[in-house]
Amino acid sequence: VFIAGGWRLFCQPCHNNLFSSAIIRVFTSDFFKISDKTASRMSAPPKFPGTGLEEVNVPGQAYLRDALSCCDDPLKAIENFQLENGILLPSLRPMLPLLDLHGVRRLDFHTSVLEELRDKLIAHINELGAKEGRERDRKLKELLVKSFPVVRVKALRPVVMCILRNTAHIDDKYLRILVRDRELYQDTDTEVKRQIWRDNQSLFGDEVSPLLSQYIREKEHILFDHLNLNNLFFTPTPKVRRQGEVVQKLAHMIGNSVKLYDMVLQFLRTLFLRTRNVHYCTLRAELLMALHDLEVQDIISVDPCHKFTWCLDACIREKNVDIKRSRELQGFLDNIKRGQEQVLGDLSMTLCDPYAINFLATSAIKILQHLINNEGLPRENTILILLLRMLALGLSAWIMIDSQDFKEPKLDSQVVTKFLPALMSLMVDDQVRNLHAKLPPDERESA
């Protein structure tokens, strides 16, 4: 009965195609008309919790309750309600008894019509949302004003949510209603939630927190799982790592909103500061590069760490730092201007990523091996000095953010002049021992 009355929306006659005419008249003023007989009994209808049909002049639960309370014959009242609010298509009436013969209930019939019209209406709204210009915004706003009162009707909610999803700027009065009603909020699309989250940091934090916890659990599981020898921690490439579920979900939640991106970065800084867990640094870099892959220019164009992270990511992917990229990386570090020192905090988090630390350390060892083979000195290799510089910056990330003293740590000269030569000496000793072990026993003493 409720469906039959609620979807009085479909009562306009159509000579050729019921659906096409209904789509053409979607949410126009005629679309919500009711019969004069019904309207005469709807003067000042009482509000009924959970439905907004009366607000759009469609008799719903409240109207039917009053009609049944005041009538002498409830069955007759229900029959009249069905006649007045069913699909008023003259050519359809003679066909309904045929459905009865096949055991098809009127509720099932009206529900199927509702679903078909709803799908076509949603498709029409999406087509309208794909267009550009003020005319589109005006039409969507009109549709939202007329349809939003019925958002609590589950059968109609997808239509309202589709309009909201295609509306670029939603009025605060609608957003407040969505936030207050948990069921409506859960059914809201992410595109709409972004507009809610921008002015509600605590609500956004509640959404993001489980994802951050899941990310940390996954990283620690891979790192500490001693039974799985096939999926080692440092095996996946950067491209594969940022295709993970959590990173992709966060990127989708952020969209192209700079404000939401800044909120996530603040969450990561705060959690890193509280826990000293370096996996938050990994997520900071992976999230930025995921947005880079999606070409979200609104965000990557304003993040001062983007080009540095992009260059470092390319080096990690290729497992090599060539002259050109080393100059680019050094240029980023050398060209931080006065007043922009806080950028060092984000750069240090990027370099504190375990994957970055591992790459910098292994690259430094490779260069030392190269210097041994060519009888070179550590202080003469500029790329090695840069790697050590970045390694020191990454390892001091927590101290820098905690103290809010954004200064690049000075590289101790004795690391280059004493420690690295001593390390090279040990590496040479290892090579000699390995070579000595390969010689036949009778040649070892003479060697």
UniProtKB/TrEMBL annotation:
InterPro entries: COBRA1 (IPR010405). GO terms for cellular component: NELF complex. It comes from the Eukaryota. Keywords: Elongation factor, Protein biosynthesis. GO terms for biological process: negative regulation of transcription elongation by RNA polymerase II. The keyword Acyltransferase does not apply. One of its GO terms (molecular function) is translation elongation factor activity. It holds the Pfam family COBRA1. PANTHER family: NEGATIVE ELONGATION FACTOR B (PTHR13503:SF3), NEGATIVE ELONGATION FACTOR COMPLEX MEMBER B (PTHR13503). This is Negative elongation factor B. It comes from Culex pipiens (House mosquito).
